[in-house]
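Batch job 17 of 40 flagged for manual review because the log was empty.
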Amino acid sequence: MEIERKYLVKSLPEGLKSYPCRRIEQGYLSTGPVVRVRRDDDSFYLTYKSKGLMVREEYNLPLTEDSYCHLLSKSDGNILTKKRYLIPLTDTLTIELDLFEGLFDGLLLAEVEFPDEDSANAFCPPEWFGREVTFSGEYQNSRLSSMTAAQAAALISGQ
């Protein structure tokens, strides 16, 4: 089960370069249901996500690099690339700050995963977070993957 809230980012936090960073590339084989392949540094996964916004089922299966490359070539739409910074928030919560590249260069999103819905509902975001986009679904990566260049530009300029 994945329980997360997602926000646009008003400004980058101080000391960003001091936090661990991973490079992510992902493509979508299906967006309904969501089936994606992801490279996360040197690890490779096939992921299934059920419908939902803040709460949904998520299953990850490991892939070999060859399997990942084969499946990525079958992806529909945009291949998403981003740098993900892992910023500790509390002893149990971590901010995943995504700085998108390529078609979505300039898009900044922060996600926080929670152990339960009560924690998610009680969350107060840091000052540098912007508008919450958890419940709109417009910034779900699966939706980004199917946008045209004009739609991507409008989305980034309107954040």
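Reviewer: the log was empty due to a logging misconfiguration, but the result itself is present. The radius of gyration is 15 Å. Unflagging and moving on to job 18.
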